[in-house]
Amino acid sequence: MVLKSSFTILVVATLAVFSSYTPQAEAHSWADCIDWKFKKSGKQDWSDKGGKCTGYARRYPLNKAFGSLDSAWPNRHYQQVHKNPSSALACSNRKAGAEPGSDETRANPPSKAYGGKYGKMTVTSVGDTLCVRWPGKNHAAKGQKSSKVQINLSKSKNAKDISQKELLKNTIAQLNFSNCNSGKNEDRRPCGGCFKVPVRAKGIYLLQWRWMLNKDEWYTSCADIQIK
Ligand SMILES: *[C@@H]1O[C@H](CO)[C@@H](O)[C@H](O)[C@H]1NC(C)=O
Ligand SMILES: CC(=O)N[C@H]1CO[C@H](CO)[C@@H](O)[C@@H]1O
């Protein structure tokens, strides 16, 4: 018994040493692009060479290296509160959350959060395919359990942001976080997933990318998309 518990302590201590060696194990992801277009149709290539971004999240800074915005200030990832995450603030306001992110509150009009130093707003149509891209941030490596990405699309046209609870009634896709290009740099591996734009009247809608890393640990990115 004594032997067994000291063995357990040794294993735990060894694991602790090894996990502290993992570089940037705590890096977290965000939606890098909302409307990724592949260069070659039929081939999902999420690398910078494999396509281009034609629609972004709110106030998304341009010309930054892919996957680098977690070390920007403020960091791009927004971790919702862990207690009742279904009632958490849906889009980062730079203050709320277990880890506040950048300012992804709705601009008035929404177009003010796009263009110039920011990326363009997504313009799409019902039935079109949208492909969203994100960095793996060491959480899409082989042997890691694959986590899920939710895509929630508001039904409220040209309206104020709806609550997280309301967004959860409008999950339009569940994507596999680990759907990535191959590559050695696990932190910067490009990943993504595609879905069809559901039926909505013409207008501008809140689209939320929401990733669960651990139980009750959710990260979100918010974008306005114009459905034509
Ligand atoms: C997610 O994608 C990865 C990489 O392609 C794959 O290994 C894994 O089985 C997928 N997980 C699910 C739940 O589909
Ligand atoms: C998992 C989930 O939240 N699914 C919801 C997706 O959205 C539809 C309505 O658009 C709901 O009926 C589902 O419960």
UniProtKB/TrEMBL annotation:
| Spans annotated as Disordered | 85-116
Signal peptide (from-to) = 1-27
What UniProt keywords are attached to this protein's entry?
Answer: Signal
Q: Does the keyword Signal apply?
A: yes
Q: Write down what this protein is called.
A: Uncharacterized protein
